[in-house]
Design goal:
By secondary structure, this protein is α+β, with helices and mostly antiparallel strands. Helix content is about 30%, strand content about 25%. The protein contains four helices and five strands, in the order αββαβαββα. Strand 1 and strand 2 form a beta hairpin. Helix 2 (about 60-70) runs parallel beside helix 3. It is globular and about 40 Å long. The structure holds tetrahydrodeoxyuridine (THU). Tetrahydrodeoxyuridine binds near residues 30, 32, 63 and 93. Tetrahydrodeoxyuridine binds next to helix 2.
Length: about 130
């Protein structure tokens, strides 16, 4: 079964939460600020931002920050994730985040938006076909 698109009110709330989380981005090296927001099955929203390291490879993307926050709070059911950047066009989660989202959330809806108001919605299964699972 594939993830359902979000009702527009929920989509707007999730994008607003990701936009707010983006304000906290710690990205002095790339200056590419990313916000994410994860919608739990019970309606709670967990925000996340990218957190960069001077040792670049240790950087954590916004999506994984949001996933780790929710998982560490005991949440195990998810419906959607939103990602917001200041790019001209919506950007999609990187490969590492797609795998971590699949690990913890399976086939959720993925909303990609820009601070300029552009928006696309797809599913994690579409972004990560034939995902690795143990
Ligand atoms: N980044 C994210 O936070 N999410 C993505 O899906 C792609 C990339 C961050 C990592 C790094 O801090 C910056 O964007 C540039 O790659």
């Amino acid at each position: 079964m594939t993830a359902n698109p979000l009702p527009s009110a929920e989509r707007e709330a999730l994008v607003a939460a990701a936009t707010a989380a983006r304000e906290n981005a710690a990205a002095p090296y790339s200056n590419f600020h990313v916000g994410a927001a994860l919608l739990a099955g019970d309606g709670r929203i967990f925000g996340g931002c990218n957190v960069e390291s001077a040792s670049y490879g240790l950087t954590c993307c916004a999506e994984r920050t949001a996933v780790f926050k929710a998982i560490s709070e005991g949440v195990r059911s998810f419906r959607a994730v939103a990602v917001v950047t200041g790019a001209d066009e919506p950007t999609s989660p990187c490969g590492a985040c797609r795998q971590v989202l699949w690990d913890q959330c399976r086939d959720i809806s993925v909303v990609m938006a820009t601070t300029g108001g552009k928006l696309e919605e797809t599913t994690l299964a579409a972004l990560l076909p034939r995902a690795f699972e143990l």
